[in-house]
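Render this sequence as a predicted structure.
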Amino acid sequence: MNEKKSNGFTALLLTLVVAVAVVFGVRMAGGTASQAAPAPGPGDGQGGAEAAGKYGVGTYTASGKGINGDDVTVTITIGEGDVITDVQVEGPGETPAIGGPAMEKLQAAILEAQSADVDTVASATVTSEAVITAAKDCLAQAEAAAGSGSGAAGASGAYKPGVYTHAEHGMNGDVTVTITIGDDGSIADVQIVGDQETPTIGGPAMEKLQAAILEAQSAEVDAIASATMTSNAAIKSAQACLDEAAN
């Protein structure tokens, strides 16, 4: 009789031990599972810090030669996250019935593609190539701005002190920009010279751009509408100077 009671007690004890082990094991497994998959934090995987942008935020303008040798001007605005937020194409010298619709199509195509790698419009090849060339130039400027930290770089002292000079071809000849970076890393002086530019148009435009670049502490300034070629040459030259100062 005692032996039966002892066997029964042993069986009950074993059952309790097994039950406790099962419950404890389930809890441990649950705890392990929850610890193995924590909520993603700011430094985990793709949810980590954002990579540096490809393009610098700002507005960029460039020109290409259209059907009659006149400028086709493209202005591209880059927003946060490398997004092309606006594209404007102007070509007053292009054939209204052919070049006009082509420029509109390309304007929409570049914005939709978020790229200058778009197809030409078959009926307006020369105008199309001018637009695409200018658009690629704009995006190249935006890439350079991202690499150099253009805009805020001067204020933060990212430019190396010194005098930097670069020239680009304007309306009739070279437009030379000389930028002086002070000891604090900011733009201390801007000089723009274009002796062959039209005195009554290019001359005032260069003066305005000279003041605008100095005030903005950046080459990201608007072209002067009445002197697009002179403006583009000055802006590109200024950007090249700042790129050199930043590297």
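Summary. The longest strand covers residues 58-65. Helices lie at 2-36, 99-113, 125-148, 153-156, 202-216, 228-246.
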